[in-house]
Design brief:
By secondary structure, the chain is an alpha+beta fold. The protein has one domain (5-200). The protein is built from one helix and nine strands; from the N terminus they run E-E-E-E-E-E-E-E-E-H. A hairpin with an 8-residue loop joins strand 7 (129-137) and strand 8 (146-153). The longest helix is centred in the last third of the chain and has 21 residues, at 165-185. The radius of gyration is 17 Å and the shape is globular. The N and C termini lie far apart (38 Å).
Length: 206
C-alpha cells in the first residue's frame, strides 16, 4: 500500500485561515487506538479524547476532505521528518512506508465539527473568565491537512504557559474543562462533510 500523494503539501498551497472558512459542513477527524470508544450513554469515552490531559494543549486532528476518514490508519513512525511543520512554498515529503509511516488496521475515530469549536468560548472560574477554542491549520511535511485545537484563557494561549507550579495548575484546570468539552461534542458516526474550497488553500496566481 502506498501513501496517498493527495495528503502532501504542494508549492502552490498556503495555510488555511479558519476565520475566513465558515461552513457547518467542515469537520475534523481524530484517530483512536480502539473501536470500542462509546459509553453506555452514547458518548465518547473520555480516555479516548487523550490519556494525558496535558497533551490537549496542542491537540492533533485532521481536516476532512482530501483527508478521508480511513486515512487515520496511517501512523507516523518515530524519528520521521514528515511530522515536522511544513515551511511553505515547497513540496511536501513523500514518506517511505515502513520507515516513516505504517498502516495500522483496526483504529477507531471520532469527528469534531469546526463550527462548534473554532472561536467557541465557554465560562471558567465561576463565569468570571473565558476559555476559547481555536482551530489552527498546522500542516506537516507529510500531511497538509493536519490541524490543531488550541485553547486560550482570557486571550493567552495555554500552550505557551510556563512550567511553574501556578501555571501547571491553571493549565490542568483549563485542559480538564477542554477534555469534557470535546467529550460532549464528539461525533461517533461519520458526518456528511465537504472539503474546503481550493481558494482556501491555493495561493492566488497573479
Amino acid at each position: 500500500m502506498s501513501y496517498p500523494e493527495r495528503l502532501l503539501p504542494q508549492p502552490t498551497y498556503k495555510q488555511i485561515d479558519f476565520d475566513w472558512v465558515s461552513s457547518r459542513s467542515y469537520y475534523l477527524v481524530r484517530h483512536t487506538d480502539s473501536t470500542d470508544i462509546t459509553t453506555e450513554e452514547g458518548r465518547l469515552k473520555s480516555d479516548y479524547v487523550v490519556l494525558q490531559t496535558d497533551h490537549l494543549r496542542d491537540y492533533s486532528t485532521n481536516l476532512l476532505g482530501e483527508f478521508e476518514p480511513d486515512d487515520v490508519a496511517w501512523n507516523w513512525l518515530k524519528g520521521t521528518t514528515c511530522t515536522q511543520l511544513w515551511s511553505g512554498n515547497c513540496p511536501g515529503q513523500m514518506p517511505t512506508v515502513g520507515t516513516d509511516v505504517e498502516w495500522v488496521a483496526g483504529r477507531g475515530r471520532f469527528y469534531l465539527a469546526i463550527y462548534q469549536h473554532h472561536t467557541f468560548s465557554f465560562p471558567a472560574n465561576g463565569g468570571t473568565e473565558q476559555i476559547t477554542c481555536r482551530v489552527l491549520h498546522t500542516p506537516t511535511n507529510g500531511n497538509f491537512w493536519h490541524c490543531s485545537l488550541r485553547w486560550w484563557w482570557n486571550s493567552e494561549d495555554v500552550a505557551t504557559y510556563g512550567d511553574d507550579r501556578q501555571a501547571q495548575k491553571r493549565r490542568r484546570q483549563i485542559l480538564s474543562t477542554a477534555k469534557t468539552f470535546i467529550t460532549i461534542n464528539a461525533l461517533l458516526t461519520e458526518p456528511t462533510y465537504q472539503a474546503v474550497p481550493p481558494e482556501a488553500y491555493q495561493q492566488t496566481v497573479i
